[in-house]
Amino acid sequence: MALGLAYAWVLAPVEYVEADPSRLRADFKAGYREAIAASYSAAGDLGRARARLALLADPDPPQALNAQAQQMLAAGENFSLVEQVAQLAADIVSTPQVAPPLTVALAATASGSPQGSPSTATVAAMPTQAPASIATPTPRPTQTATPTPGPGFVLIEQKTVCDEDLGASLLQIIVLDSRRRQVPGVELIVTWNGGEDHFFTGFKPELGNGFADFEMEADLVYAARVGAGGAPVSNLAPPPCSGDGGASFPGSLLLTFAQP
Amino acid sequence: MRGIVSRLLFPLALGIGLGLLYGWVIQPAQVVDVTPASLRADYRNDYVLIVAEAFAGDQNTALAAERLGILGTEPPDEIVLAALEYARQHSFTAPEVDVLQQLLTAMQTYEPSPAQT
Question: How far is CA A148 from CA A80, A145, A196, B29, in A?
Answer without folding.
Answer: 10, 9, 22, 47
